[in-house]
């Protein structure tokens, strides 16, 4: 477990502050030097004097009612989605309609809105349009890949196959492997206990300790599982797993990272699939018991989906239709003879899962995806850990495309699988597109060069229907797993670190560029602003506010005549810059890490308990519970003294723990007692793990709020600045 830092680290390097201040001064000087015009270039020089006439098949009468037909139709469709279930058929119809609207928009942009008034305008406008086309291409590929999900089909197959497992007719040997490197013993213990509790008799559990730690060896022996280590850490996790393959014999292999706890029915739901000899791997989703750090920092963790819910709940079931799923490193079962025939775990890349699964697919093996949450793990608890994990994944994803000799994806895979790899390759460069989309409108507003030459009515006819329906249908199609605005917050925060990392990867794809493991159980005593990563967005916010004020404030103050320097299309840049300003503000606030001081997460579990202190007996129920303590509400308002010690009996599960009273309070006639567990024996510890992590109860199911509620909760953080101004003792 990482120790909390005794003093805050340096938030931002000196060169970054220097660049930031220099940029602000430069921008102000430029505007002051051009005080007789609101933009860097004379607007009449870099923009056409009048609108270019639309081609006949794109033309419309702005005075007729036809102008409102696309917008009214999209609003009607968006409203009707509240009453239409999202299934394969409805999703296919609605999203292809969105695609047609997008193609209509791209056609209009290319044929009628490019700015060729000046060589700088032509280059700027054309590059931006090219990025829009690329973004639309990526969207089209994802539309194809998620048109037909297999989640319902796979669950029905699991129901069928599990009958043979439950009856004992099919019970192959399963080796459960838990690779670990530097995770704390209490985290590893939790995973071991969860694996042992799986309702499957013919399993053997192995702890693969690449840290060679005596305490983990002792823990494994105490809990009754097998312990495997090796003399070095060659090839990281892949080498650890390959070393274990040589020392185990199970027909099937189940993999769990040391911070993941499987549910009791994990093997029951997955093992049965291997009765089909054509199936080589069953991957399940990753789900997390702690809130995503972005939403937790903003105080909206019960409102917004985590950034991985879209991938595991929507992308993977779509890829499954064409044998293109991604192996995700944990919570999966694989047939031993098939992975060994493929050469074992792939060792040449920084991560092993994606590459190993892809190599199996190039060898003709079938990997399937069961979209049922059957385990829970820990997500990164702060912005830096999140970045390091995602940057490691980014490097691993890019490395795959340099391994053509070992993993010939372009020559052996089918067209659908190739399209999935193409979309992922393009998405790896999404950070460049995101930065361009954010800074492009600001640069347009500052320089006076319009990116698009079009009137407001053209935007209302071609752009607004597509943008509006695209946002509405994403939330509906994914059943609340993805909100476009919230997704942009993630992309904004990741953009600049990803660009820097991508440049280094392109120079040397296999260089060691960062950490090889994600920290688990990280604690932090203080708030962290993370300016070292977010200063470009602080600059963007400052530049946007100053730019809008100098540009449009000049009109309001009468410094330059209104309308004299305006040309069609520049008003849209103001709207777009304002929108990006809101997204950047939310992103900056989301990256302000709040203190994490509790070693064990508390969950809102309600279970009946009996507290016995001396001769006194108190009855009540838990309001929240962790592995180290609980908040207990007594059914009768009786005072409990501080520092009192006694036994807490969990009646529904019939186990007891020794506990001490930390404090007590009384509200609305009820007494609340806050307890710290002192002694937890082996049986009680196992029961606590199962109670907390052993099933998908109401409190840890994926949330699916309405789009309007989610958007309002996100934007409301701009006005209260909760993550910045909240004080902690």
TrEMBL record:
Catalytic activity: [(1->4)-beta-D-glucosyl](n) + UDP-alpha-D-glucose = [(1->4)-beta-D-glucosyl](n+1) + UDP + H(+)
CDD domains: CESA_CelA_like
Annotated membrane topology: Multi-pass membrane protein
Transmembrane found in the keyword field: yes
Limits of the PilZ domain: 597-693
Segments traversing the membrane: 12-36, 67-84, 96-120, 126-144, 432-453, 529-552, 572-592
Ranges for domain Glycosyltransferase 2-like: 176-340
Example GO molecular function: glycosyltransferase activity
UniProtKB keywords: Cell inner membrane, Cell membrane, Cellulose biosynthesis, Glycosyltransferase, Membrane, Transferase, Transmembrane, Transmembrane helix
InterPro entries, per the entry: Cell_synth_A, Cellulose_synth, Glyco_trans_2-like, Glycosyltr_2/OpgH_subfam, Nucleotide-diphossugar_trans, PilZ_domain
Entry's localization field: Cell inner membrane
Gene3D superfamilies per UniProt: predicted glycosyltransferase like domains, Spore Coat Polysaccharide Biosynthesis Protein SpsA, Chain A
Enzyme Commission no: 2.4.1.12
The keyword Glycosyltransferase belongs to this UniProt entry's keyword annotation: yes
Pfam families: Cellulose_synt (PF03552), Glycos_transf_2 (PF00535), PilZ (PF07238)
Domain of life: Bacteria
Protein name as catalogued: cellulose synthase (UDP-forming)
Organism: Candidatus Synechococcus calcipolaris G9
């Amino acid at each position: 477990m990482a120790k909390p830092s005794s003093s805050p680290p340096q938030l931002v390097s000196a060169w970054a502050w220097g660049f930031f201040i220099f940029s602000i001064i430069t921008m102000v000087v430029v505007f002051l030097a051009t005080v007789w015009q609101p933009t860097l270039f004379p607007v009449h020089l870099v923009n056409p004097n009048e609108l270019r006439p639309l081609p006949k098949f794109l033309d419309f009468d702005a005075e007729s009612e036809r102008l409102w037909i696309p917008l009214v139709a999209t609003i009607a469709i968006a409203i009707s989605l509240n009453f239409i279930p999202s299934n394969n058929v409805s999703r296919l119809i609605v999203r292809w309609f969105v695609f047609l609207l997008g193609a209509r928009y791209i056609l209009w942009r290319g044929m009628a809105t490019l700015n060729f008034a000046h060589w700088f305008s032509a280059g700027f406008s054309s590059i931006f349009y090219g990025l829009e086309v690329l973004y639309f291409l990526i969207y089209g590929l994802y539309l194809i890949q998620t048109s037909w999900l297999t989640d319902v089909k796979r669950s029905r197959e699991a129901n069928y196959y599990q009958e043979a497992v439950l009856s004992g007719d099919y019970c192959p040997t399963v080796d459960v492997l838990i690779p670990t490197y530097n995770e704390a013993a209490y985290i590893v213990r939790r995973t071991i206990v969860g694996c042992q509790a799986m309702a499957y008799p013919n399993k053997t559990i192995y702890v693969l300790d690449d840290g060679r730690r005596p305490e983990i060896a002792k823990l494994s022996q105490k809990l009754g599982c097998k312990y495997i280590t090796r003399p070095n850490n060659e090839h990281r996790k892949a080498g650890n797993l390959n070393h274990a393959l040589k020392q185990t014999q199970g027909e099937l292999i189940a993999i769990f990272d040391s911070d993941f706890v499987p549910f009791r029915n994990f093997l029951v739901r997955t093992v049965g699939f291997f009765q089909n000899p054509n199936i080589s791997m069953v991957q399940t989703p990753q789900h997390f018991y702690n809130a995503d750090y972005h939403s937790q920092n903003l105080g909206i963790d019960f409102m917004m989906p985590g950034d991985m819910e879209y991938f595991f709940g929507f992308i993977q079931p779509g890829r499954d239709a064409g044998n293109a799923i991604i192996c995700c490193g944990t919570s999966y079962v694989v047939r031993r003879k098939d992975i060994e025939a493929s050469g074992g775990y792939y060792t040449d890349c920084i991560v092993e899962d994606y590459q190993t699964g892809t190599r199996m697919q190039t060898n003709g093996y079938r990997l399937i995806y069961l979209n049922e949450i059957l385990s829970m793990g820990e997500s990164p608890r702060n912005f830096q850990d999140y970045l390091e994990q995602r940057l490691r994944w980014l490097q691993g994803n890019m490395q795959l495309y340099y391994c053509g000799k070992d993993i010939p994806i372009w020559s052996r895979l089918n067209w659908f699988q190739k399209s999935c790899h193409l979309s992922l390759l393009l998405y790896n460069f999404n950070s460049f597109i995101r930065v361009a989309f954010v800074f492009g409108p600001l640069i347009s507003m500052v320089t006076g060069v319009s990116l698009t030459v079009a009137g407001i009515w053209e935007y209302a006819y071609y752009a607004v229907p597509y943008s509006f329906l695209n946002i509405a249908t994403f939330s509906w199609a994914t059943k609340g797993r993805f909100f476009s605005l919230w997704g942009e917050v993630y992309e904004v925060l990741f953009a600049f670190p990803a660009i820097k990392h991508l440049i280094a990867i392109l120079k040397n794809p296999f260089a060691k560029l960062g950490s090889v493991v994600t920290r688990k159980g990280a604690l932090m005593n203080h708030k962290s602003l993370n300016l070292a990563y977010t200063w470009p967005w602080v600059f963007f916010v400052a530049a946007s506010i100053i730019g809008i004020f100098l540009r449009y404030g000049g009109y309001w103050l009468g410094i330059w005549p209104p309308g004299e320097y305006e040309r069609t299309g520049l008003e849209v840049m103001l709207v777009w810059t304002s929108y990006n300003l809101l997204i950047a503000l939310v992103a900056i606030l989301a990256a302000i890490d709040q203190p994490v001081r509790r070693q064990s997460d508390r969950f809102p579990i309600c279970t009946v308990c009996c507290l016995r202190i001396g001769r006194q007996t108190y009855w009540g129920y838990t309001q929240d519970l962790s592995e180290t303590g609980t908040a207990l509400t007594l059914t009768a308002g009786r005072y409990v003294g501080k520092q009192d010690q006694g036994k807490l009996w969990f009646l529904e599960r019939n186990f007891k723990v020794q506990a001490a009273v930390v404090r007590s309070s009384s509200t609305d006639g009820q007494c609340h007692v806050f307890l710290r567990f002192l002694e937890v024996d082996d049986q009680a510890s196992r029961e606590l793990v199962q109670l907390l992590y052993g099933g998908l109860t109401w409190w840890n199911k994926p949330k699916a709020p309405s789009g309007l509620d989610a958007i309002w909760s996100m934007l409301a953080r701009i006005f209260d600045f909760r993550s910045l101004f909240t004080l902690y003792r």
